[in-house]
Structures are given as structure tokens and as C-alpha cells.
User: Fold this.
Amino acid sequence: MDWQERLNASIAWIEGHLEGEMEWAAAAREANCSLFHFLRMFEVVTDCSPGEYLRRRRLSRAAQELAAGEGKVLDLALKYGYDSPDSFAKAFKRLFGCTPSEARKPGARLGLYGPLTVSFVLKGLQAMNYRIEERPAFSLTGTWIRVTSDQGENFKTIPAFWEKSMKDGSFSALARAAPAGSGIGVCGVCADCGTDAAYFDYLIAIETPADRALLPPLCKDVAVPAATWGIFESRGPLPKAVQETWKRIFSEWFPSSGWECADGPQLEVYGPGDGAREDYYSEIWIPLKKAAR
Assistant:
């Protein structure tokens, strides 16, 4: 089973378990990857977080049952993971623009979300520049936040976190504390997802310095295991160029590369200069393992 087939197998597993508590680790096993990388991969490839996909599919199923006159609102709320009819009704109206009671009425208009199938078209029209490097274990240290990917919230909170770090001096303190000769500088780090598929830790970090005196307060250390790294080049203004590179890595490079994601944090390493430049250079670092056969 190839990479695309395993991802679709994990989605099929989710479809078969829309009722009750979702076991994201089991879905990740269907894709033959760690929970962290499955959640990251899902969001990059589909432009939708796993939690948001699950919510849309559960509410779509509930809407179909309501339109068919099946089940009470309370029963459907509990069936599809809501604590109360009120929370179910609020989520339902936010998605469909009407209440569950209104959805029962003849002629109700519902824009339902169907099951997802992933299909990659390997274009190969534009070269993707990358290199493979072996690196020993190292450690990263930086300021951090717990980020939710629910409803795309991470696309708001992470830029806001960077802006805050620039204003409060945290970024400058990290830059001064970075070890001499470090090839990483101040980078963005995604690590340690939550088991509910909605959260992960995001750090603005440097390689851990021997002297911690210059570090800003409340820093966190992240151990990075020895790994084979895929290091992918990105050219263009932030954040658009990096986001497009992420998508190309998962939709074009991984399916044909013979590699898969390995356990460990993922890094965005930024070059010097103005990140808004059309030729701005940055890199994405992903730990790799040979693809299963």
C-alpha cells in the first residue's frame, strides 16, 4: 500500500468511527505514521484540520438524519459527540446557517460535507530544491505557546505570537543567545501534538545555548533526536511561500520520494533579511525515514 492509499485508509477509518470518541492514534496507524505527523500531514494536504473535518462530517450525518425525520435532537447530539442539545444546535447553526429543528422542515437547504478522498497529481513542472542531511541529536530552546488548529486558529495565533515576540524583546533576546556558528538561527518549531488532534506546541526557538543567561523568561527545551532530515528550500515572501512549499512537500515530494515522516519536531528555518521580499529564502526541515514497502 503506497503513501496515498494509506492516507485514504486513515480517512476511511475516520468515516467508520464518526460516532463515539475518536481515537486519532488509531487513524494515524492506518497511515503508518506517528500521531503528530498524521495530524500535520492531514491539515497541510486537505487545508482542513482533522478536528474540523470530523466536526463537518458528524454534523453532515446528523443533518441527513434530521432531514429524513430520524432521531431526536438530544439523541443525535450525544451520538455525534456533543455534551448537550444546546452545544449541538450552536455548532449545527454555525456550519449550516439553520437550527436542527429548522433542518427537519421540508425544503430546508443544507450544504452537506461529503467524505474526503485524497488524490495527488504529480505535476513536476517546477523543480523542488532539497537536500538530505544526517544530523546528530540536538536541543532547541525557545518561547512557546499551545496552539489549536481548530477552525484554522493556528493561522491567526502563530503570526500574532511572532508579532508579540518582536515587540516584547523575546525575539531579540533569542537572537543574542543563539550559539555562535549555529546554522539554524531563530526558527519556528512545531512539536508535541495533543491526543485530541486539536493542539500542538509551537516555539520560536534557537539551538540550546550553553549559557542560558541571555534567554528570555519561561523558555522551553525540546529534544530533537538524531535523524535523517529532508531540508526543502522556499523562495518568496512569508508566510505564503512557506505554506505553498509545505503543500508541495506532502502532495508532490513524499508520494514519489521513497521517504516518509519520522518522529521528531518540524522546523521552519528563516534566512536573513526582509521576509516580505519576493526572493526571500527560508527552509523547511522534516525528519525522515525510509518508506514502508
Remarks:
- The chain is about 40% helix and 20% strand.
- The mean pLDDT is 89.
